[in-house]
Design a protein that fits this description.
233 residues, alpha/beta, Rossmann fold, five-stranded parallel sheet, 35% helix, 11% strand
Length: 233
């Protein structure tokens, strides 16, 4: 008998990037994965969707939900949703919130995940949020997810028992790379670049954080870059 048949389900948010891939690897050890992907008009959405399906295939996620949120383009306010705002090159020493921050984005993602989890009977929602070594997005902080867990408890059926899990939230990016390698996470299937969909730019904030993480972990990043700066360790 398939030993996974008796396991509980977990909704796993998979962007197609490195962090969500490692999160899926962690979730897949204990749960059957229901894979959720949300597009919102970001420049690399086509490539991210391709990576989502590749990662979901790798982890055997038979249940998938792909949602496209058009309203983020109407709201704007981010270089990922408004083409008039340039995506800046990375500055890893800056403490400012970068203009790639999409206002309150993760609340929209988590709301969809909660609705789906309640229908599926899933008890966990996994998201690859990273706090300390991320870009400083306010919706990646631990207290944000503590508060959202309270919202879930208050806003679902009394018999519903769903909790958000953030297994990477206190890890540095280099440690996420090491954890992923230990779990055989398929980094070669992932995509992190904010700008491009064919070859990663190597210069945007997401590329820079990823490249530095692999360098600090003393591992080779398996995806191709058009430019591969040696970001300081």
């Amino acid at each position: 008998m398939d030993q996974t048949s008796n396991r509980s389900k977990a909704v796993v948010l998979i962007s197609g990037g490195m962090d969500s891939c490692v999160t899926a690897a962690i979730a897949g050890r204990s749960y059957n994965i229901a894979a959720l992907h949300v597009s919102y008009g970001q420049p690399a959405e086509r490539r991210e969707l391709q990576s989502f399906h590749a990662v979901a295939d790798y982890f055997g996620a038979s249940e998938r939900l792909v949602v496209r949120l058009e309203h983020f383009r109407l709201i704007g306010g981010s270089s990922l949703t408004d083409s008039r705002i340039p995506i800046h090159d990375a500055n890893l020493t800056s403490r400012e919130i970068p203009n790639t921050y999409v206002p309150f984005r993760n609340a929209h993602f988590l709301s969809i995940a909660t609705s789906w989890a309640e229908v599926l009977g899933a008890r966990k929602i996994f998201i690859g949020a990273v706090w300390e070594d991320s870009s400083g997005y306010p919706d990646c902080r631990p207290e944000y997810y503590e508060a959202f867990n309270k919202v879930i408890r208050a806003g679902t059926r009394p018999t519903t028992d769903i909790a958000i899990e953030t297994p990477l939230i206190y890890l540095a990016k280099r440690d996420i790379v090491k954890r992923g390698a230990a779990l055989n996470a398929p980094f070669h299937l992932t995509w992190s670049c904010y700008r491009d969909s064919d070859i990663a730019c190597g210069a945007c904030d997401s590329c820079a954080l990823r490249l530095r993480a692999f360098r600090q972990a003393e591992m080779e990043d398996p995806i191709a870059y058009s430019n591969k700066p040696g970001y300081a360790a």
